[in-house]
Amino acid sequence: MNSQTNRTYSVLRTEKKYELPLQQAALIADRLARIMQADIHSGVGGYAVRSLYFDSIYDDDLMDKINGLEKRKKVRLRIYRPEQESVKLELKQKQGSAQRKDTLEISREAALALIAGHFDPLRELSDPLAAELYALMHAGVYRPKCIIEYSRRAFAAPTNDTRITIDSDIRVSRDFDRFFRAAPAYSPVLKHPVLEVKYNRFLLDTFKFAVNLAGIPEMSCSKYELSRSRIG
Fold it and tell me: What is the pTM of this model?
């Protein structure tokens, strides 16, 4: 089996999320487009993000979030086009407002094996992250729980590694066999877009003024938690 990884990389940032009315999200996107660079994948109208989330046999990661544990994690596969051959396998770990994301690029074939509950492709990789994910997923009997897809507009600035995204049309599916196909059967999750603000150290005033989130509370639920509540 050819399951060689291309690269691994990590990101550590503060991450805050807000649910916004559609009109306000559009206004913020217009402001951000004037002061930040659009993501290289964005194009004119953004791009699709599709993630398949795994969880343990007892849904430990979901329950940690529901119970409000400060330290928690998520494991997911991520693609942007159904036909792509390289797939991101990501381990997200959260402690308070800090979010660490470790990414391992694996082959499409290896991703299909993980979806089927076979973790041996991770053992074949001489990579510490692959070994960590193998131990975690094998011990916890991790299995696919849901596919989440949405349309994303993303803006970035090099100062403090700032990244601001607007996700809309968030939807969920249990159609795991169609992760690499054009159209899984989806159910809607949220009517309103979700704004995510990510940065290191502090957020510059320029970007604070652009998003203008005074009086808007942070989201207490993640996309994964909301999606699982939608499909059971």
Answer: 0.93
